[in-house]
Prior knowledge:
The structure is a single chain. This protein is α/β, with parallel strands linked by helices. The protein has 31 helices and 44 strands. The strands form 14 sheets. A seven-stranded mixed β-sheet has the order 6-5-17-16-15-7-8, sandwiched between helices. Helix 8 links the parallel strand 10 and strand 11.
Amino acid sequence: MKYWKGIEELESTPEFMQSAFAEFMPVKESHESKDATSAPRRDFLKLMGFGVAAATLASCETPVRKAIPYLNKPEEIDPTISNFYASTYFTGADYNAVLVKSREGRPIKLEGNPESPITRGGLSARAQAAVLSLYDGGRLQHFAIKKGNAHEQVEMAALDREVRGKLAGTTGRIAIVSPTIISPSTKRAIAEFASRYPNTTHVMYDAQSVTGLLQANNGVVPGYDFGRANVIVSLGADFLGTWISPVEYARQYVRNRKVSSDKRSMSRHYQFETAMSLTGSNADVRVPVKPSEMGAVALALYNEIVGGGDASYKNAKLTQAANDLKAARGASLVVSGSNDPAVQTLVAAINQALGNVGTTVDLTAPSNLRQGDDARMAALVNDMNNGSVGAVIFYNANPVFNHPLGAKVKSGIAKVPLTISLNDRLDETGILCQYAAPDHHWLESWNDFEPKRGSLSLSQPVITPLFATRQAQESLLHWAGNTTTYYKYLRATWRALTPNDAAWDKVVHDGVATGTALPAAPAMMTAALSPAAAISQINSAPKPSGNAVELALYEKVGIGAGGCEANNPFLQELPDPVSKATWGNYVAVPRKMAVDNKWEQGDVVKVTANGYSVELPVLVQPGQTNGTVSIALGYGRTLAGKAGDQVGANAAPLAMATANGIAYNNVVTLTKTDATSPIAQTQTHHTLMDRKPVVQENSLANYIKNPKEVTEYEKIATPDGLEKPNKVSLWQDYQYNNHHWGMAVDLNSCIGCGSCVIGCQTENNIAVVGKQQVINRREMHWMRIDRYYSSAAHKTDFDEKGKVSTYAAMEDPSENPQVIFQPMMCQQCNHAPCETVCPVLATTHSSEGLNQMTYNRCIGTRYCANNCPYKVRRFNWFSYYSNEKFETVNGHMFTDLGRMVLNPDVTVRARGVMEKCTFCVQRIQLGKLEAKKQKRRPVDGEIVSACAQSCPTEAIVFGDMRDPNSRISQLLRREDGERAFHSLDSINVQPNVTYLTKIRNAESEFFGKENA
């Protein structure tokens, strides 16, 4: 099996071969060289001399620090001691129950709340990065009234007087526009506002709508349990990445994907989709289909399961999926990401016929995370433009940017007499409004949430409001004549659930509770379809011509479809799990289309539909369905802030607004321009290609047959015969008498979501470097998630096809390759190559198995990075916290406000210093000191690295390998000789990170060819 990270690597392009393995700046041998990418040798030596001198001087500087005494210290705060407060992160799309880590009154880190029955301690990448948005200087810091073309600062009382007066005199309809709201108290406040102004309506919309799903299920999103499904069929639903509740679904999904010698069974997952998604990357069987074929796929599956449909779509993998579904009645699940109510109606009928309702589909405890109604939003936009709306209030909603009818929303705002924005900044919608009453940040606010019927959670303020803002609910109450604080209003809502202070205090402490308080969802404007009507609608839907190019719009794991996190540089620099691209969106095209049109990666093409065009670079994406392209939503902001403005292009207007709702696909025309725009990808950096075995995988059938034969262990030749690499060494092995810290990563559980990457970045004050530095291969992430594509050819084909033919087949990328994810961090090697080459002992081995860095010794030779076989060391080419060229992307390190997010337990590294993963040594030391104060050893689970703590699927296990009862010790004993292996074991560096072989529940030739 051959693994490759990208088209450039597979084809060994000259550009890739020139730079992929470069550790140092290229140097010209003479001034006559024509190579523009190289530097003259004299300049190189000057630069090196200056770099060493600068690093030496920097290490001698004494920083100036201001000490402010705690004369009246808050009782609950002790300097250097972290406090944790339960809260909830929800921005209208992504729900996470969190614990907020606060130091000296300032939130610095978010962790998952293990008490939550929904997220169970997991955290998404977006939630991990959300703490940074609290200190975003791009937030509107005061109330404002628009005068002319500018907004002028005003006092709250003055704005309140004007707004109340104008609301009282409004003759037309008053509309409150928001994303999905799952807060019972907020909905109660909106209802009170509506009772004061009876002509008020509340319209919710979602940037990634699921109106079709709501319409097919009587106005609710069913509760799904992927953990109880033995067979899963997804029709374009990226439920592990962005669909509805990915953290919840990921934890469920992996529960039935973990295997051991005692549990040799796992679910089988089929994915039918257009673009290679995070969920499709994890599927056992993936079949590429065009967006226009999704209805036919649903109809064919319906015909196989229920009968009565006319199946025009034929695919052997679909028939296999139907057979597996029927064999697993009551323990199967079919979901769809389509917003077509006809498709969703058939999917609901399939689940009903399979007996899944009541087991894997729960209609009694539905999800509340999506409530947007496309028809209501479209009707409001029309009413705004025809003059029947007297006032509109935008509550954390930016439809001018993220709704496909954004242009009509913009023109409608100009025709509404009173417009108010409660958004946290003057964004693309807020800038058009007459009044701006910015909302608090969620970390400054009280609120409640009901993500699923029967499950409640709270958020509480963990810091005094940084700016002169006011909670949006309080603004609505004030304008309705109710001057109570929102906290008291919230307590009144919870009076029945928490009748006394002790009960309330417990809920605030835990952050979660059981019960229901959310009012019933309003009826959908469009009636539900019968299966017969759905079949008729699918059969009568217009079909694109055979040579038409179809566009699929999708949501990225980091930025999201709404773009509300666009000004968060952590998320902008988070590599997309599949493409590994950062800082912007692009047009993902299949390789065949790129070859046929002679497009190179980075060529800019114009994409046109609905009379609207965007220009974006081409990215050749394996797995993209032939005849289609895909573009991510959420990019192209113009009023997000320094980091988020002018990054990518807004693709929302390319969606189709149909009578059935918003369709996130369209027929487009592509025109090549003369421009090029390099894509900042990390996928071909620090490559480990062809250095076997980096990753290992095998089939479930082989695992069931013999677990001890699914992992290939390398042996080396010795005079005594073949031996394991660790049996032959020139090193004197270390003895670990107290602790020996280690990590295990289950490749069956890792879905590649990136939460661990952001968790590590937040915990360890890792700098953001921006697009150009990523292109220069200088990103600073301490851990990365390597994504490998694998060719269908395997060495077992040698005998039948010959070595030459097999190797040739390996070089030809599959149109639909298998994908495997592998988290890669410092392996904390016992025989670390970096330690032997450092001339100043900046990197040394600890008595507990850690490869430790002493920053003030490092002089920046970078010998250690050159000698590291895993390429996990990062060099500070610049002072990212003081060099003004990084102020836009790394701005939180430049201001007193932004620096509040930094972890005081971790040094901010200077220019010229090497850095890398430390296994969160600050957490290790804290855990040991706490145990020492209690005169005991640390208990397993007390010390957890940031990456392991944040993982929603528990793929990473961290602990003390000297403790025989620790989870990691038990895991390694169980998997020894079966799935446990070390990456690059043959070079005998003896890592302290162990990987577990990935097991796939599919035949060897399981990835379906298109329309096979």
